[in-house]
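Objective 1.3, modelling of assemblies. Example input:
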Amino acid sequence: MSRNIFSRKRQIIEERSLSERSFSFIFILLVVLFFGIPLLWLMLAPFDRVASYSIKWPNWTLSNFSTINENPYALRSLVNSAVFSAGTGLLVILIGAPASYALSRVKFAGRDAFLYVLLLFSSIVTGTAAMVPLFLLALKLNLLDTYHGVILVLTGGLIPVSIFILKDFTDSIPKSYEESAQIFGASSWRILRDIVTPIIRPGLAVIFVWSFVQAWGNFLTPLIMIRDVNKSPAANMMYSFYTEGGQAILPLVGAFSLLYTAPVLLMYFYVNKKYGFRFYGGIKG
Amino acid sequence: MNKGSRAAKLGNPILGRGAAAAFLSPSVIFIAIFLFIPAGWTIYLGLTNYKLTGFDAANTKFVALDNFLKAFQDPQFISSLKLSIIYVIGSAIIGQAVLGFLLAWVLSTFSARARNLVELIVIFAWIVPGSVVAFLWFAFLNADEGTLNRLTGSNIEWLIRYPMLSIIAFNIWRGAAFSMLLFSAAITAIPKSHLEVARVAGATRMQQLRQVIFPSARPYIYTNILLIILWTFNDFGPYLLTGGGPGGQTEVLPIFVYNTALRFLDFGYGSAIATVMLLMNLFISLIIIKRSKRNR
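Predicted structure (tokens):
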């Protein structure tokens, strides 16, 4: 008797779930189309002998990539982007990692308040809301049109969030590793170098890639700080690939877009495969 | 050995106070220079008539709240403010938060392989640099050859006829992955047994959503909404697709500040608008932080 009720209930659930499944399937199909179709252009147009705005099966060629060489600034702008991004990634780690370690391991008065103010301020003072003083700061400190100027401004914007993520990561590592090394008489410096650094390396890698990707795509900071076309990064250079009549030079734009996108995609997949890029509750309020 | 265990007992094993201060100070200096000083400077400049060119350039004066009074009578500012609000509601709240949640929720019922594949496409859109995304959408929305017109058999100049709708769709496309990832983390964190119990008890999907998923995902929902509202409100991205045009129809506040201060070099007025943005950021943060605390 009771078994009967149970199986009837099960049948109802299964019928319901069938219509739900087809609903879910249609929804996901639409999502895939919405996100996938614009991406197809990036995959196909760079290899099309007659590139256009439309998405079509290409007339395969690699000649579009040689147009990048013909443009005097295109390759250079990719190198500039690499300098900005690598510099920013390294500086963020160099400055943020010690701070997050200290915040994780040393208890001092006002630590939680410090973190709270940091979180609040970093979400309130953004690149756009502070662009006027950042421009003036760069003007007064002779940072306009310099590589280190852009790196410093980008790093300043990324430090607070990096400290948060890294502190969370360090918190999740038990102190016992460091303590047992200390009991065996290792100096603080050796413990930091030989024990702490290797353990937090995945966190550092994730933060490096995250900062690199942020800097790689950043458009506003170079727009404000760089006038010299020789120092312009790829994000801004793309907007110069137009004819005098205002038409986009499609072979160049297509090939360049793919070349500009590839490094961050590869980095993402590498880090994701090796360490996982998901949110482990770290960002939960 | 003795020394070591004593230090460990003190709960201060590796870093002394001095070392900790040294570890913290570079970050503190950076944050002071690039967060605190700019914030104070923005507020100060907003109270002056500082310009880089023209008569006022040599005669910078303190004008108190003149810039703010001017702003609230400036039809361009009012229109920018309205556009920003529409942009935030459309692309952050309706677009990214709701779409991101639906995606995470629906995908949680799919097999791991199907889920990974769909997530991959959405994340891909998130990682592609903004300038490239802008061009992809420029091509997608092109009147003559664009794919959207090909698919719908129309011939519409989307960026001119529907500029706000275009930048909203563009921003949803770029940003939905973040919400999706955050919400899938939230849904994965729910103990399987809770959902199982609800399902066996015959709860509909909607009931499961209201009674199991929403309550446990609440902290994530608040964090996510706070972050994406702030990001979207301060997002310079529409500039990449439309440059604020046509005719100022997508000139959201960040673009308005950029044009006022850095193109027309009116730093005083531009900073006043930036101050309004800072205050709105503060207001949004405080409201949502307060709500999330009350609901915990």
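Residues 75-107 of chain B form the longest helix (33 residues).
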